[in-house]
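Note to self: keep these together.
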Amino acid sequence: MFLLKVKGSFSAAHSIEGYQGKCAEIHGHSWEVVAVVRTVGLNELGIAYDFARLKEKLQLVLSALDHSYLNRLEPFKGKNPTAENIAVHIFSELKSAMPCGLELESVEVFESPTSSVIYKAEG
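Structure:
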């Protein structure tokens, strides 16, 4: 088994409705995202999966969030765009883009260099 990891980023603002503190106000982050995928075999070149193609898939998901006010986006209607909910959204979108033989293992979302959340597939 091989685990492949790619990183991407996007910049966006959000606010946490109902939160008691500074995060209740609109503020921005330079979000960093790490996606980990699992595969069993290698192709004839000895490659598990092309990193460039995997990065493209991640960036396509992140570009829909980039330079936005996350609270206004459809995926976050009725829920706060917390790091946790952002991770679930990115996981869901990226999972649907995975080719046969590649399974999304986890998505880690950093809202700062020292604070992140990891969402993993259940089961």
